[in-house]
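Entry type: protein chain
Record version: 2
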Amino acid sequence: MRVTVPHKLSREEVRKRLHERAQDLAGNVPGGVAEVTTNWVGEDKVDLVISAMGQNLAGNIVIADHEVVIDLTLPLALSFVEPMIAGTVKEQGQKLLA
């Protein structure tokens, strides 16, 4: 699943906000308790694993000039709710960059 979040910020500002707010990602996962593990693998890329409700979603966030691209691999058990998850990811991504 790929979600793009447009922005009008510099890459440096996006990096800063993602670094500062990475701990907020877990609180933005619907369903209550979640654990988010992040690993910056480059200046503009962070790998992440989201664990919630017995499911793991692995993916990454890539910072581009005018958008942030979030790629997540959904387990088969969640594929039927992909549109809902994509909408939530986009909404929460906008909040993290605000």
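Comment: The domain at 2-97 is CATH 3.30.310.80 (TATA-Binding Protein).
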